[in-house]
Amino acid sequence: MHFDVVIVGAGQGGAYAAIQLRQLGFEGTIALIGRESEPPYERPPLSKEYMLGEKEWERLLIRPADFWAGKGIELLLGAEVTTVAASERQVTLGDGRVVGFGELIWATGGDPRPLSCPGATLAGVHGVRTRADADAILGELSGVSRVCIVGGGYIGLEAAAVLRKLGKEVTLLEVLPRVLARVAGPQLSAFYEQEHRAHGVDLRTETGVVEILGEDRVSGVRLSDDSVVDCQMVIVGIGIIPAVAPLLLAGAAGGNGVDVDEYCRTVLPHVWAIGDCAAHASRFADGAVIRLESVQNANDMASCVAKAITGDPQPYGATPWFWSNQYDLKLQTVGLSIGHDATVLRGDPQARSFSVIYLKAGKMIAIDAVNSIKDYVQARKLVEEGAVIAPEDLADTSRPLKELPRG
Ligand code: FAD
User: Fold this and answer.
1) In whole angstroms, what is the distance from residue 335 CA to residue 384 CA?
2) How much is the pTM?
């Protein structure tokens, strides 16, 4: 088998790369190789509407199942790429099949980081990355009254909100002093901690897990303070490990993901990497090499590679944005708050509609807007420009962000 473009990973970025190539008029052969058995689907609903039962499976599909064949995109599903021979321009699948490529796009995302404590593999301990993970959780829920969630990042918090709506007792553990510590400032963390507690979540910070208890199945969690939380299910949301081992073994540079340049090229000729697994120097992080885990980043990197392959290379510099839904709260984020040295609170968290604006050396670098769509929309341009606006003006909710005088 040989294809002009082989895309490894039939998830968000991989699917979008194939779609973009066709939209840009690419007429060569394309294979989209995915380890999961499902055609490409969106992951965000897995910890939101899908887990809640409000969105059925078909509505998660990125395109209808027959779209791919119609566009001449060969979908190879249930197929894992195990080795890459870069100089031969070949990948090998788990079943021994060899697939040749003209260009290779690596879009493999990552696997949930497992707990390293005893009991971590007991039945009833779940990550949330795939449809299979979500279905396993849903399949067990009727026999579960108490759930312990490990990790106070977005996935853990979203799962907590869903499980409370479904009437489960929820304990959420965060080892750091506050939830969302890696991605947001203290005001946002404090707000979400208060919201979850008000909705009945037993939320404990500075609390780690030392052991998952149980015989055949989880029955509890022993915590770092030696107390025990009884539960019949544990959901682990402590980040991902980028799925890049075959590519690094083939000689690509990287460690936490695979390193790419501003065109999403790896150091291997004709090999590109995009999405959650791609470590890139971001102008939104002062050039620091970071991985972004978001739909926006996967789609925009896919677009960047598709343009380069079709002869119109443009450096990747898309503005990061992200969202999270918890209870009736819609959080929308633009920019990256990494390295901020000041924050401005715009609006009143008690009113459950407000924004936190992040500044660095006076410049606006990011915003977290909670139930505040106007701020989110208007802040985009300001973040892209690195606008300098007096903090007292930013805090003045009587004036729209877009009308504030620049300093
Ligand atoms: P993925 O979509 O994960 O696709 C990678 C695919 O590659 C997977 O199907 C994987 O099985 C496959 N694969 C891995 N290794 C191999 C191999 N060797 N051979 C073949 N196939 C392989 N982002 C937001 O912006 N907003 C949200 O609200 C949000 N919520 C989320 C909620 C959940 C529960 C999760 C899990 C993610 C959420 N995200 C959200 C993140 C977003 O879904 C990811 O950033 C996005 O899916 C990344 O796309 P990707 O193509 O890099 O990886």
Assistant:
1) 8
2) 0.97
